C-alpha cells in the first residue's frame, strides 16, 4: 500500500511541477513580449506610445523619455537588434546596436550597443534602466565640451537625463561639440 501511495505522490509532484513550469514559461513569454513592445515604442520615436508602455514605471519615465528624444535627435539607426532575453526572475535584457551621430562626429567606426534592463512585477513593467558600451573617447569628448565649449550645451542640455525639455537640441549641441573635439589637438591620436 505504501508503494502505491508513493507512486501517487510522485505523480502529484510531477504534475504540480509541470503546471508550475508551464505557468513560469507563460509569464516569461508575456514579459518578453512586453519588453519587445517597449523597444518597438522606444525606436518608433513616438513619445506617447513609449509613455504608455511605462505606465507602471513612473520613476523611469523622465529618463527614458529624455533618452528617446536624445536617440531621435542623435539619429540613432538600428544596426542589429538582438531578441530580448530573460536574465533573472522578473528581469529582461534587450540589446540594440545603433549607429549615431556622436560616433560619426568623432570619426570613429564604432556602433554603440544600448542595453535596456526591464524589471517586472507581475505582468507590469515597473522600471527601465539603460546602459551603453560607449568608448572612453566618448566620455573624453563629453568632458571636453563641458570644459572648453560650455556655451554650446548650457541651454539645450538643461535637465539632461532628468526629463529635460530639449533632448534633441542637447544631443545636436553635443554632436557639434564632438566635431570640434575631433578636430582639436586634444583629440587622442589613434
Quick summary:
Residues 1-22 form the signal peptide. With 190 residues, the chain is α+β, with helices and mostly antiparallel strands.
Please write out the topology.
Blueprint: H1 2-44, H2 47-53, H3 61-73, E1 77-81, E2 85-88, E3 91-99, H4 101-106, E4 112-121, E5 124-132, H5 136-148, H6 150-153, H7 167-183
Antiparallel strand pairs: 1-3, 2-3, 3-4, 4-5
> What's the structural domain tally?
1
How much helix is in the residues? 40-55%
Helix/strand class: alpha+beta
> Helix count, per DSSP?
7
CATH class: Alpha Beta
Largest sheet: 5 strands, antiparallel
Strand tally, please? Answer: 5
- CATH architecture annotation: Roll
According to CATH, what is the topology? Nuclear Transport Factor 2, Chain: A
Run of helices and strands: HHHEEEHEEHHH
Describe the overall structure:
By secondary structure, the chain is α+β, with helices and mostly antiparallel strands. Helices cover 54% and strands 19% of the residues. The protein has 7 helices and 5 strands, in the order αααβββαββααα. The chain is elongated and about 55 Å long. The model is unreliable at 4-21 (pLDDT under 50).
Descriptive labels:
about 55% helix, single chain, about 190 residues, Nuclear Transport Factor 2, Chain: A, five-stranded antiparallel beta sheet, alpha+beta, elongated, 7 helices
